[in-house]
Amino acid sequence: MNLLHLCQWLYASSLATTIRESQYGFPVIETAHVLGITVLVGTVAIVDLRLLGVVMKREPVSEVLEQVLPLTWCGFLIQFCSGSLLLFSKAAEYYWNPIFRIKLVLLLLAGLNPLIFHSTIYRSVATWGESRITPIRARLAGAFSLTIWGAIIVAGRAIAYFHHR
To answer: How far lies 23's CA from each of 18, 27, 34, 93, 160, in Å?
Structure first.
């Protein structure tokens, strides 16, 4: 089964049909998606802005991360579940949408950023985590994260305005 057939199968599923045909299904799921992105990106932004030395300069980076991480995961879970349902309901349409494809690439980059950050520069956080000015690689990771998440939000909104003809 190729990707197009999978998208068509998802689109034709009873769950997708129920979401599309329900008066409130899609709007409720989309609202959950917006609330989830608020929690996810809001908590990520707190860490990123700390890495950039903009906020919470007196708080150790590890403590900021420890405090917001549970909420970040909660936002991610809401995003994953609601995004999956939104995708199912319009999979055949999204398959052709170039903005949706861009969003998927951006999401991949957003996921790789913390993996790279935690497996490299964050390993030495004990030596720099209390500094008001973090190492350049930590600042670059924060700036990259803010940029990518901003682009994801823009792409997510733009999906509705680009249709396959």
So the answer is: 10, 8, 18, 19, 18
Q: How far apart are the first and last CA of the chain?
A: 24
pTM score, whole prediction: 0.90
Residue with tokens 């990771």: 141
Backbone angle region of 32, left / alpha / beta, with phi > 0 → left and psi within -120 to 50 → alpha: alpha
Exposed/middle/buried for 37, CB within 10 Å: 0-12, 13-18, 19+? buried
Which residues lie below 8 Å from residue 132, measured CB to CB, with a gap of 6+?
53, 57, 58
Q: How far apart are CA 47 and CA 88, in angstroms?
A: 32
pLDDT tens digits, 42-68: 999 999 999 999 999 999 999 999 999
Per-residue pLDDT tens for 4-21?
A: 888 889 899 999 999 999
Residue 165 has pLDDT above 60, yes or no: no
